[in-house]
Amino acid sequence: MKLIIHEFWMVMVMLGLSISAYAYDFEVDGVFYTVTDLEKFEIEVANPFPNEPYTKTEIVIPSEIVYNGRTFVPVRIGERAFYYTKNLKSVSLPSSIKSIGKGAFQDSGLFTINLNDGLK
After folding, report:
1. Rounded Cα–Cα distance for residues 108 and 77 (Å)
2. C-alpha dihedral over 52, 41, 19, 53, to 10 degrees?
3. Apex CA 113: angle with CA 111 and CA 119, to 5°?
């Protein structure tokens, strides 16, 4: 019986991890964000859904995003954030962005990206 319960919880943990891979906390102006540090109010641009990429052709990430009366600062483009966004042609990033996750623009139609000097 203990083995069955243990296996059940392992399956639940694995399901939780797979669901959270594409989780986001909020959306502003058609861009999805995940809070990465609530004390510093830092966020990253997130992939909205694995099978429903962004449909915009141009995305401008502002240096500050206000949501529910709080001001957040985007510091990262998350992994696969713009994966398979074939319509995407241009992205502008603020100087607050410090890193870009693996595959962030993989299989996108991106032509132009404006980067900042502090990017890692």
Report:
1. 14
2. 10
3. 150
Task: Give per-residue pLDDT as tens, 55-77.
Answer: 888 999 999 999 999 999 999 99
Contact (Cβ atoms closer than 8 angstroms) between residue 104 and residue 80: yes
CA distance 38 to 22: 19
pTM for the whole structure: 0.76
| 60 token code pair | 């401008």
Torsion of CA 59, 85, 78, 91, to 10 degrees: -30
Half-sphere exposure of 22 (CA within 13 A, CB side): 13
